[in-house]
TrEMBL record:
<dbReference type="GO" id="GO:0006261">
    <property type="term" value="P:DNA-templated DNA replication"/>
</dbReference>
<keyword id="KW-0547">Nucleotide-binding</keyword>
<dbReference type="GO" id="GO:0005524">
    <property type="term" value="F:ATP binding"/>
</dbReference>
<protein>
    <submittedName>
        <fullName>AAA family ATPase</fullName>
    </submittedName>
</protein>
<dbReference type="InterPro" id="IPR051314">
    <property type="entry name" value="AAA_ATPase_RarA/MGS1/WRNIP1"/>
</dbReference>
<dbReference type="GO" id="GO:0008047">
    <property type="term" value="F:enzyme activator activity"/>
</dbReference>
<comment type="function">
    <text>DNA-dependent ATPase that plays important roles in cellular responses to stalled DNA replication processes.</text>
</comment>
<dbReference type="Pfam" id="PF16193">
    <property type="entry name" value="AAA_assoc_2"/>
</dbReference>
<dbReference type="Pfam" id="PF00004">
    <property type="entry name" value="AAA"/>
</dbReference>
<feature type="domain" description="AAA+ ATPase">
    <location>
        <begin position="36"/>
        <end position="152"/>
    </location>
</feature>
<dbReference type="InterPro" id="IPR003959">
    <property type="entry name" value="ATPase_AAA_core"/>
</dbReference>
<comment type="similarity">
    <text>Belongs to the AAA ATPase family. RarA/MGS1/WRNIP1 subfamily.</text>
</comment>
<keyword id="KW-0235">DNA replication</keyword>
<keyword id="KW-0067">ATP-binding</keyword>
<dbReference type="InterPro" id="IPR032423">
    <property type="entry name" value="AAA_assoc_2"/>
</dbReference>
<dbReference type="Pfam" id="PF12002">
    <property type="entry name" value="MgsA_C"/>
</dbReference>
<dbReference type="GO" id="GO:0003677">
    <property type="term" value="F:DNA binding"/>
</dbReference>
Amino acid sequence: MNLAYRMRPKNLEGFVGQEHLLGKGKILSAIIESGNLFPLIFWGPPGSGKTTLARILANASHANFNELTAVNAGKAELNEIIKKAKVNQENNIKTVLFIDEIHRWNKAQQDSLLPYVESSLIILIGATTENPSFEVISALLSRSKVLTLQGLTLKDLEIILERGLKELKKKIDKPAKELLIRLSGGDARIMLNALELSAQYKDINEEVVKEVFQTKSAGIYDKKADEHYNTISAFIKSVRGSNPDAALYYLCRMLNLGEDPKFIARRLIILASEDIGLADRGALIQANEAFEAVSKIGLPEAALTLAHVTLYLATAAKSRAVANALGRAQKAVIEFPNEPIPLHLRNAPTKLLKELSYAKGYTWSNNFVGPNKDLPFLPEKLKHLKFFES
């Protein structure tokens, strides 16, 4: 067992952080004191204690704890737990089902949980790093309490690090300690994994910490670390630069390191408008349909869809006309935020407004080709401006 697993607290006394949920009179403290557990969704950054809290809650409620990781678990694994839950129910034992990265399950998979949550056969605790409002179906949200976990503070991480050093019977100098905490990006798991690797050296110093964080085995690729942003940047720039080979390489690299496929799909939707725009009107359609497909099927099959849309966008004609026009219009709004709208463009729902010349001169009907082009559409001070250039 690795250090992070060995150090996982089994009760609240050993847990570090999340005082806003665990302090006196707070919701999780109340649940633990009462033992009355109900469905929960933990939303928070990696390494903030979501899994550990779920275990502590299950233990405090005297419930049987079962864990699934949405990335590699499906219907078969769920059915096994449901069978066990039915046996537990016959023996008056509660069953907690913890699903890590629940946002990775598509709508159909999440729907399959509903009858068991509704009947209280299982007490669901879902964990997600993504906004549950977008990633968890509304039917589950309405039956659960969403709790937001905060990233661990520097003080929290230092406490955990000191415990890890004690467990390993190792010492570390102050500069190396500060570097280890900083490079962990607020993720206790990454920090402890890196500490365990660093402990293989005779002395733990800054050079050792830097060396450890160059290795993939330290778990360095997280959604807030530099490598995350470097890789998505390289991917987007390769698509934008019409290099399909480089784009595919960075796509596979992100997926291999555990990046959320929906995050990639969302970035491609943005790129379709920003860097392709009107040069290929099908680009946005392709990107949006790819996001829908990825949301429905999940990994590993979603990799095919992402490769498909990546190649389409990388080989499409490019144009920044939409982005440039938007930028110019936004700048104009900042400079002229409250210019009077021309009277003929205003809404005229009442007789009084019509008498004040609202909507006067503007005509439109099914048989009318268009309004009078001589009428100004922009406010008076902006009529000389041109935002869109085809």
